[in-house]
Specification:
Structural class: alpha/beta
GO molecular function, one term: monooxygenase activity
CATH class of the largest domain: Alpha Beta
Keywords: Flavoprotein, FMN, Monooxygenase, Oxidoreductase
Protein name: Nitrilotriacetate monooxygenase component A/pristinamycin IIA synthase subunit A
Largest sheet: 8 strands, parallel, barrel
Number of domains: 2
Helix content: 25-40%
Distance between the termini: 15 Å
CATH architecture of the largest domain: Alpha-Beta Barrel
InterPro entries: Diverse_substr_monoxygenases, Luciferase-like_dom, Luciferase-like_sf, NTA_MOA
Bound molecules: flavin mononucleotide
Number of strands: 15
Family: Belongs to the NtaA/SnaA/DszA monooxygenase family.
Shape: globular
Mean pLDDT: 94
Strand order of the largest sheet: 1-2-3-4-9-10-11-13
Length: about 475
């Protein structure tokens, strides 16, 4: 039976550019503590596997228009530690940027989060795509992808060595004998690589889970190789079901080529469901959200300098093959106008019809604004009733496209609650998502075993970079048979 992994990608003011403008939406990040608490309570009541917190280490006015949640947000590890004390069962995954983080500090904070949550912490390692981060961390420039991934490879190795500093039996705590520590079970890291140098040992005992489940999010060839070799969950950007099938197969075969049991790599896709009582209701929500997205033409004298170039009638004209730049954004895209559109333009009209229920020949045709928004907001959306969305999730799982989803919510808290209390029970009714938490730890929820201590097995402790199919990989193992 298919068993989906489902986590919530928490974005406190919503994960759609205009979500914060929707009636009743949470919109002031100064109130995030209450929203995070409520989100965690709802997610745990729905038995979601984890809450996932992304990260972005810089801010600026431009982000207001691209991705308003990136403007101001709580640090992800702080959110995880806060929620560790408020929840009992749900996993809590924080993002860290390996290009800028200090491995000893991160190993210490994450091992602590795992201990404080009873084994429910996870860590998403990214190398970062935002160049402004460099100046916030005393660097002259953001390193190129190759160098960032070289560092990420060393980083992951060092993290595991540091987490394993204490063997599970290292703290003896024999009060009668006066023996606190077995020093033979405390291990130095002694890693001195091209980019990182760490002595160790870590001054936190081994995490409850041994190693926190590692997530990696990216899309380049080096990113895929890193995910295949180092991650338990690969968070991928996919354009549709067929693309997802291909990406999952590629990642799993890379994992196999790296000598790993490829079934232990779970491929997770982000998805943004718009949930309504009926399909028409969901479409009316998606329609209102589209209408609330600002486009360049909303400023008669031109948009702010940082406004995204692709959110304009000028850019849409290129895609449509028809110059609509002098028209009003509220001009209806009627059948006669649409007839002149390019193939890509016609496809866009179909996407808008599916999402909003508006068709060129109908009573309420889409407007040019709807088309600009559909072309420029790239979130992977599915619009419908709870049952329709659950059916779509199930179809993806059965096609071998994903092992699970990271669910984004356009409007907080309403859309998240509609998902948790509407779609999740439908998935449970279909038997593709469990109704109860069984194990205690995040690794249990993800069906991952507890790893051995690298200092005891010593195999992983030897760091040997090797050349993989798409670049420099981590290390070579004996290859076992590939499982079906
Ligand atoms: C689904 C998804 C989520 C991501 N989340 C984050 C994030 O929260 N913070 C971040 O710095 N980068 C994030 N990234 C960016 C990647 O880490 C990556 O650095 C970026 O896409 C550049 O591509 P590359 O690393 O594959 O070269 C995400 C990427 C994907 C596909």
């Amino acid at each position: 039976m298919t068993r989906l992994i489902i986590g919530a990608m928490v974005r406190a003011i919503g994960a759609y550019p205009s979500g914060w403008r929707y009636p009743g939406a949470h919109r002031d990040p100064r109130g995030d503590a209450a929203v995070l608490r409520r989100t965690a309570e709802v997610a745990e009541a729905a038995r979601l596997d984890y809450l996932f917190f992304g990260d972005w280490l810089a801010t600026g006015h431009d982000l207001e228009f691209q991705d308003p949640y990136l403007v101001a947000r709580v640090d992800p590890l702080s959110a995880v530690t806060y929620l560790a004390g408020l929840t009992r069962r749900i996993g809590l995954i924080a993002t860290a940027n390996t290009s800028y983080a200090d491995p000893y500090t991160l190993a210490r904070a994450t091992a602590s989060a795992d201990l404080l949550s009873g084994g429910r912490a996870g860590l998403n390692l990214v190398t970062g795509a935002e160049p402004r981060v460099a100046g916030n961390h005393g660097r002259d420039f953001h390193e190129a992808s190759g160098s960032r991934y070289d560092r990420a490879v060393e980083f992951e190795h060092v993290l595991r060595c540091l987490w394993d500093s204490f063997e599970d039996e290292a703290i003896v705590a024999d009060a009668a004998a006066g023996v606190y520590l077995d020093p033979s079970r405390l291990h130095r890291t002694d890693f001195h690589g091209a980019q990182l140098s760490v002595d160790g040992p870590l001054n936190v005992t081994r995490p409850v889970q041994g190693h926190l489940p590692l997530v990696h999010a990216g899309s380049s060839p080096r990113s895929k190789l890193f995910a295949a070799q180092a991650a338990d969950l690969a968070l991928v950007a996919v354009t549709g079901l067929e693309h997802a099938v291909a990406v999952r197969e590629e990642l799993r075969s890379l994992a196999f080529e790296s000598g790993r049991d490829d079934r232990t790599l779970k491929v997770i896709a982000p998805v943004l469901p718009i949930v309504g009582d009926t399909r028409e209701h969901a479409q009316s929500i998606a329609d209102e959200l589209s209408e609330l997205v600002q486009i360049a033409e909303d400023w008669p004298d031109g948009p702010p300098a940082a406004f995204p170039a692709n959110r304009s009638l000028a850019q849409l004209s290129t895609l449509l093959g028809v110059d609509v730049s002098a028209l009003s954004p509220d001009r209806a895209a009627t059948s006669s106008l649409v007839a002149g559109f390019s193939g890509a333009g016609q496809e866009l009209v179909e996407i808008v019809a599916e999402r909003t229920g508006r068709s060129p020949s109908g009573e309420r045709p889409p407007t040019l604004r709807h088309l600009v928004v559909a072309a420029s907001v790239t979130a992977s959306m599915v619009v419908g009733s709870a049952d329709e969305i659950a059916a779509e999730f199930e179809a993806w799982a059965e096609a071998g496209a994903v092992d699970g989803f990271n669910v984004l919510s356009a409007v907080q808290p309403a859309q998240f609650e509609a998902f948790a209390f509407g779609v999740v029970p439908e998935l449970q009714r279909r038997g593709v998502f469990p109704t109860e938490y069984e194990g205690e730890t995040l690794r249990d929820h993800l069906d991952l075993g507890r790893p051995e201590n690298v200092h005891v097995t010593s195999r992983d402790a030897r760091f040997r970079p090797v050349t993989g199919r798409d670049g420099v990989g981590r290390r070579a193992f004996e290859r076992g048979p590939r499982h079906p």
